[in-house]
Amino acid sequence: MRLHGSIARDLGVLIVSGRYKPGDLLNGEIAASDRLQVSRGAYREAVRILAAKGLVESRPKVGTRVSQPGRWHLLDPDVISWIFEFEPDEKLLTDLFELRGIVEPEAAALAALRRTEQDVDEMARALDDMAKHTLAVEAGRLADQAFHSALLRASGNAFIVSLTSGVGAAISWTTIFKQRDNPLSRDPMPDHMSVYEAVKASDPKAAHKAMENLVDLALLDTTNSRGARKKGT
């Protein structure tokens, strides 16, 4: 990671974790660059990255302030990764799965109506890779992302497809979060297979139900993992 990206990440984690509160004024460019022992240009570029993601606002003669959460680009893959750097806010976690529960079942239903043979083949390859590698390793998690990405593309809706990177990052990081201390005890493959079979069979109702079930179980896994960690502390 380039220096300005590393600085942006460190500041981003402090913001989304609540260490820096909305309205807080960040150190000025000169003071911050001196404290971090980096060039003013690198710090300035890091602040630009954060501003582009809605986390901060910079104003002349005022400085750089942490934005209100409503302005944060929460589906930005970097922002999602920063949220899951430590223990994510419970409300944000619930909201994330609520979004998935709204978008993905409808996308699955549309995919069942509009999918091409290429879409089906891409989903099948992703499932094969998931089974081969498991979600305990990066290759398996990438395959999981590929499955969901293929399904969103198969919906044929340009606005749903535009959510691919954000939804993919959410899926990847919630999986990492669930397995941070212990492997996932439940096998998620049957849930994914149910979605695949319904889409392949061009059955929108079954696809919607199967994806709804997949998201619900993923939320349950995440909640159980979070609860187990709290008991262990």
Task: Describe it.
It is a single chain. The protein has a two-stranded antiparallel ribbon. Helix content is 69%, strand content 3%. The radius of gyration is 20 Å and the shape is elongated. It is mainly α. The protein has helices at residues 3-16, 29-36, 40-52, 77-83, 90-114, 117-133, 138-154, 158-161, 164-178, 189-200, 204-232, and strands spanning 56-59, 63-66. The protein contains eleven helices and two strands. β1 (56-59) and β2 (63-66) form a beta hairpin. It has two domains: 3-71, Arc Repressor Mutant, subunit A; 77-232, Up-down Bundle (Four Helix Bundle (Hemerythrin (Met), subunit A)).
Low-pLDDT segments, ≥5 res: none
Distance between the termini: 32 Å
Helix fraction, binned, reads 55-70%
Going by CATH, the architecture of the largest domain would be Up-down Bundle
Give me the secondary-structure category.
Answer: mainly alpha
Report Rg: 20 Å
- Strand arrangement within the widest β-sheet reads 1-2
